[in-house]
Amino acid sequence: MAKILVYNNYANRMETYYRDLSQAMPYNANRTLTVSEFRGSSKTGLLWTDRRCMEAWNSFRYIYGRGIYVGYAFKRPWEGGHGTLSQHYAGFAFDVGQNLTQAGRNSMRNLAISSGIWNYVEPANLTPRWVHFDERWTVSGYPLIRQGSKGPYVCIAQDGLTTLGYNTGGLDGVFGARTTDSVRQYQSSRGLSADGIIGTNTWNTLMKEIVGRGQSSTTVLPT
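User: That's the sequence. What structure does it adopt?
Assistant: Structure tokens below.
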């Protein structure tokens, strides 16, 4: 059983689902992406993504017309396995097609590009043995978030801060007053401008510190 936080882009709200690993992800059509496939090699029972990403998967799976092998998708930052600002930590990225021939991967990659469904498709020279596509919110890196923000990037920040021992008021994808206070405390302790806003400098500092460090006694687990 997994707890899944989904940001509903259309309603601007966080939604919570509980699903068995064999069940479809929330907003997934025709069970083409199970919770187990989305979780991939992650060991966590707490996942997050947004509705727009799930609908992008539905659209691409429909035009591809057959099953897609998912090698890697979601990871929590402290589990590591990807770069410091990876979209896998936001639940927006898929590394797929590891079971295909090179020609098969090239065909899938070209379809992903020509379809216009994904905001980013990795070039073949960077991922020759799989196809990477994602539904990132910005051209590169992570977006600026502050009090009032909602969504998977808030989940990333809350996950990192709580793992480091800061009290964000929980891990719910909502940037509230408690999260703002914890951000200010973190920024002050790292010599950053303590404005409670997570921009480029705070993202870079936090992610370099948290990625791959492992779970701590204060890491938020499923409830």
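Residues 59 and 117 are 7 Å apart (CA to CA).
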